[in-house]
TrEMBL record:
<protein>
    <submittedName>
        <fullName>Uncharacterized protein</fullName>
    </submittedName>
</protein>
Length: 124
């Protein structure tokens, strides 16, 4: 389990914003965000005035703004643990659309596959 917790604060003008919290004295974490199996560029983690708190900003890439369901997975780089995620749905969306959940499950499955492959390599 990660020592960090992430809470969404807002999503405005194409930038997802959140607050990352940890015990005071914890080092500034390295955050990665994946979209469609690729890293998102321009992610920033900025220390706030409170110890153990950081503001996280994730700019939504232009190629993610399209019809369908787009899921972003936010991870702590050191442990590769998913801290949070957000989903964009554009175009015709159904009332009880499960595509966002399936997309998130795919992202988590990809993370598990990477961890399993890394484990297999380390135990050989």
């Amino acid at each position: 389990m990660s020592a960090y917790s992430l809470t969404k604060t807002r999503f405005k003008e194409g930038v997802w914003e959140g607050l990352l919290a940890a015990d005071s004295g914890a080092p500034t974490p390295e955050i990665t965000v994946d979209f469609d199996g690729r890293p998102v560029r321009g992610v920033t983690v900025t220390e706030t005035t409170e110890p153990g708190r950081w503001a996280v900003e994730v700019p939504v890439p232009q190629e993610a703004i399209c019809d369908g369901v787009q899921t972003f997975a936010i991870r702590e780089a050191a442990s590769d643990e998913v801290l949070g995620s957000f989903t964009l749905i554009a175009g015709e969306a159904l009332g009880d659309d499960l595509r966002a959940e399936v997309s998130l499950l795919r992202a988590e499955l990809d993370m598990l596959k990477r961890a399993f492959r890394r484990h297999c390599l380390e135990t050989m």
